[in-house]
Specification:
With 248 residues, the protein is mainly β. Helix content is 13%, strand content 48%.
């Protein structure tokens, strides 16, 4: 369950295309390839989360709350509305409560990245949940267009990224990330876009991470399907505390 939340909160965007690549000055790029970013102050969502890995399959209802660039809060209730786990993510801390086994798990992004064998941070997780571009453009990124799609290829440290967006509404549709040199991969597919506060928002996101495991290459997949998404500028609560009887 812990890994479910950890993976749940991950993500990225961008590139690999074989034709028509070109390098543009930043000003031209911003005009020609600028992608739409979902903007908000506070967000609340009702969702269904499905998780599958080589050793387990889980499905659960979830409530997600967010304060832009600050907090991601998740409550998971597998059956009858009884909460089984709660997670709180800030810019530097990740804490999960396992209410079934009375355990608490604490991470920073370095330790979580090590446990997943994939480097992630708060901005990456937030962008993936919102369907936004992960990394800003730089002059040496590669840009191309093909059949109604915008494509951006980027290299950021250990990552090669390929982002595909619709040329019509400039929303990210697919992100492929490859970690160098170990070859771990992640792909995110966004679909079922609906208007929220007059902005297109993906109500379905599938994240698949392929990494080296003890028995060879392993695949972990998380699907997040939203049934309701609301945003506003009125502050909302993020209730979270660790009971003293919980084990570390």
């Amino acid at each position: 369950m812990t890994r479910l939340f950890s993976v749940l909160i991950c993500f990225a965007v961008l590139v690999f295309t074989s034709c028509g690549k070109k390098i543009l000055p930043t000003s031209s790029v911003e005009k020609e390839y600028a992608l739409e970013k979902f903007d908000f102050d506070y967000l609340q969502a009702k969702s269904k989360i499905r998780f599958s890995s080589p050793d387990r399959n889980l499905s659960s209802s979830a409530s997600i709350r967010m304060k832009r660039d600050s907090i991601i809060w998740v409550s998971v209730s597998p059956i009858f509305g009884i909460e089984a786990a709660r997670g709180f993510i800030s810019q530097d801390t990740i804490v999960f409560l396992d209410r079934v086994n009375k355990d608490v798990y604490r991470y920073n992004f370095k330790s979580l990245s090590n446990s997943l064998n994939f480097e992630i941070d708060f901005e990456m997780i937030q962008s993936i949940l919102l369907g936004n571009q992960v990394f800003e453009f730089k002059n040496d990124d590669n840009f191309s267009k093909k059949a109604g799609e915008l494509m951006i290829n980027q290299k950021r440290g250990r990552f090669e990224l390929e982002t595909t967006a619709s040329a019509k509404d400039r929303k990210v549709q697919n992100i492929k990330v490859r970690e160098i040199p170990d070859g771990s991969k992640m792909e995110i597919i966004f679909s079922e876009f609906n208007l929220v506060d007059q902005q297109a928002f993906p109500f379905n996101a599938i994240v698949e991470i392929i990494s080296a495991g003890t028995k060879g290459e392993e695949s972990t997949q998380v699907q997040i399907e939203h049934s309701k998404v609301e945003v506003g500028n009125t502050p909302i609560s993020f209730p979270f505390s660790v009971p003293s009887k919980y084990e570390n």
